[in-house]
Amino acid sequence: MAGANPTPSEYIQHHLQNLTFGLHPDGTLGFAHGAKEAADMGFWAVHVDTLGWSIFLGLIFTFLFRKAAKHATTGVPGGLQNFVEIMVEFVDQSVKDTFHGRSSLIAPLALTIFCWVFLMNLMDLVPVDFLPALFMAMGVDYMKVVPTTDVNATLGMSIAVFFLIIYYSIKVKGVGGFVGELTLQPFGKWMMPFNLLLEGVGLIAKPISLALRLFGNLYAGELIFILIAIMPFWIQWALSVPWAIFHILVITLQAFIFMMLTIVYLSLACEDH
Amino acid sequence: MNLNLTLVGQAISFAIFVWFCMKYVWPPVMEAMQARQKKIADGLDAASRAARDLELAQEQAGKQLREGKEQAALIIEQANKRANQIVDEAKENARSEGARLLAAAQAEVEQEVNRAKEELRAQVSALALKGAEQVLNASIDEKAHAELVEKLAAEL
């Protein structure tokens, strides 16, 4: 993709390509040069940019909140502590309103999800060419800076939530209770296979929908930013700015939805019938 | 990929977006945070003020209690003093009244004695006159002898 003048479709494809590291078909490890090579690596590859940025943003979140927590006073909170307290109160209230079981995991989990997803979404507001151009100057060909536009990232999180759903279901209801919930309703024990099919789909749909909702929203948003970026440079602001302003809402909302649904799913898992 | 004017276009957009955030997104967020800070500060203030008020009130109450006790002690002392005084006065009154009554009785007794003496004197003079009249068995001028009898009675 080092052509002097990429066509719009090349430009878009380039922007949607992750920096992939993995096993080439010929058995050597290395970065993929182009979408074709990345696809050839199959499953055994990692998106270095997705991992790198998500870890980096996660560290920012952890560092900031840790700092605020360590310097917390019981008096009037300063700027950072005030902000962190607002976030924690907000998440805690959401959890209290929705989750009625007792668990020391749910609230921190919800806080982490909300802040992390929000930060990852926030990268969407950085102009689409800024960071890729920076990394290009450092010799990195591909750089997708919004981790949540990578379905691997969102599915990774939702699968973690999925395991938590199963863990809490079994912890609260026992193995028998959980299996019973999957097979004995809604139609009673003579319809077991059918029940299992229905409930199984319902169970699997939770992480899938959780991941794809976030991914779809952010991917679409990013794509529109990219589309705007191939317009003449003097008119871009007319579309890009309103879209960015609208996106402030979208990224917050998506982070909130991901958090809320996680709480709701875990709350359902903890509920005894 | 190459660097071209797209980057400039994005820079323009980004600048406008940042300006927009500065102008319309940041201030309300900041305001909310400051409002929260103020609320907390006010709450803490109120709490410390209440604690101070409580301390003051307790101090005040202690002081008043002490004053009350002092006053009560004072009143009791005064009452005791007054009671003693009343008793003393009553004793004094009784004593003087007794003395007065005694004096009055003595005066009356003296008067009675005088009167009895007077009466006795008169009867003696009459008796003496009658005795003399009988002794002489003759009419004697009462007027002429009254002076004599008076002199006799006064010597009694």
Automatic annotation (TrEMBL), chain A:
InterPro entries: ATP_syn_F0_a_bact/chloroplast, ATP_synth_F0_asu, ATP_synth_F0_asu_AS, F0_ATP_A_sf. The keyword Glycosyltransferase does not apply. Keywords: ATP synthesis, Cell membrane, CF(0), Hydrogen ion transport, Ion transport, Membrane, Transmembrane, Transmembrane helix, Transport. One of its GO terms (molecular function) is proton-transporting ATP synthase activity, rotational mechanism. One of its GO terms (cellular component) is plasma membrane. GO terms for biological process: proton motive force-driven plasma membrane ATP synthesis. It is found in: Cell membrane; Membrane. The keyword Transmembrane helix applies. Pfam families: ATP-synt_A. It is a multi-pass membrane protein. Its main location: membrane. The chain crosses the membrane at residues 44-65, 105-123, 153-170, 219-239, 245-268. SUPFAM superfamilies: F1F0 ATP synthase subunit A. It comes from the Bacteria. Key component of the proton channel; it plays a direct role in the translocation of protons across the membrane. Belongs to the ATPase A chain family. HAMAP family: ATP_synth_a_bact. NCBIfam families: ATP_synt_6_or_A, PRK05815.1-1. This is ATP synthase subunit a. The gene is atpB.
TrEMBL record, chain B:
Keywords: ATP synthesis, Cell inner membrane, Cell membrane, CF(0), Coiled coil, Hydrogen ion transport, Ion transport, Membrane, Transmembrane, Transmembrane helix, Transport. The keyword Cell inner membrane applies. CDD domains: ATP-synt_Fo_b (cd06503). One of its GO terms (molecular function) is proton-transporting ATP synthase activity, rotational mechanism. SUPFAM superfamilies: F1F0 ATP synthase subunit B, membrane domain. GO terms for cellular component: endomembrane system; plasma membrane; proton-transporting ATP synthase complex. It is a single-pass membrane protein. It is found in: Cell membrane; Endomembrane system. The chain crosses the membrane at residues 6-26. Pfam families: ATP-synt_B. Residues 73-130 form a coiled coil. Component of the F(0) channel, it forms part of the peripheral stalk, linking F(1) to F(0). The b'-subunit is a diverged and duplicated form of b found in plants and photosynthetic bacteria. F(1)F(0) ATP synthase produces ATP from ADP in the presence of a proton or sodium gradient. F-type ATPases consist of two structural domains, F(1) containing the extramembraneous catalytic core and F(0) containing the membrane proton channel, linked together by a central stalk and a peripheral stalk. During catalysis, ATP synthesis in the catalytic domain of F(1) is coupled via a rotary mechanism of the central stalk subunits to proton translocation. F-type ATPases have 2 components, F(1) - the catalytic core - and F(0) - the membrane proton channel. F(1) has five subunits: alpha(3), beta(3), gamma(1), delta(1), epsilon(1). F(0) has three main subunits: a(1), b(2) and c(10-14). The alpha and beta chains form an alternating ring which encloses part of the gamma chain. F(1) is attached to F(0) by a central stalk formed by the gamma and epsilon chains, while a peripheral stalk is formed by the delta and b chains. F-type ATPases have 2 components, F(1) - the catalytic core - and F(0) - the membrane proton channel. F(1) has five subunits: alpha(3), beta(3), gamma(1), delta(1), epsilon(1). F(0) has four main subunits: a(1), b(2) and c(10-14). The alpha and beta chains form an alternating ring which encloses part of the gamma chain. F(1) is attached to F(0) by a central stalk formed by the gamma and epsilon chains, while a peripheral stalk is formed by the delta and b chains. Belongs to the ATPase B chain family. This is ATP synthase subunit b. It comes from Oceanospirillum linum. The lineage of its organism: Bacteria, Pseudomonadati, Pseudomonadota, Gammaproteobacteria, Oceanospirillales. The gene is atpF.
